[in-house]
Amino acid sequence: MGNYKDVEDIRSAFEADLKSIDNIKSLDEMRVKYAGKKGVLTLALKSLGKLPADERPQAGQELNILRDEIERELEAKKIAINNLENERKELSEKIDVTLPARGRDCGAFHPVMQTMYEIAEIMTGLGYSIALGPEKEEEFYNFECLNIPAWHPARDMQDTFYFPDNIESDNGKINRTLLRTHTSPVQVRSMLKYGAPLRVVCPGKVYRRDNDPTHSPMFNQMEGLLIDKDVSFAVLKGTIGEMMNAFFGRNLKNRFRASYFPFTEPSMELDIECVECGGHDAHCRICKGTGWLEVAGMGMVHPNVIRAGGIDPEIYNGFAFGIGLDRMAMLKYNINDLRLLFDGNVSYFLSGRSNRSERRAESC
Ligand SMILES: [Zn+2]
Question: What is the pTM of this model?
Answer without folding.
Answer: 0.65
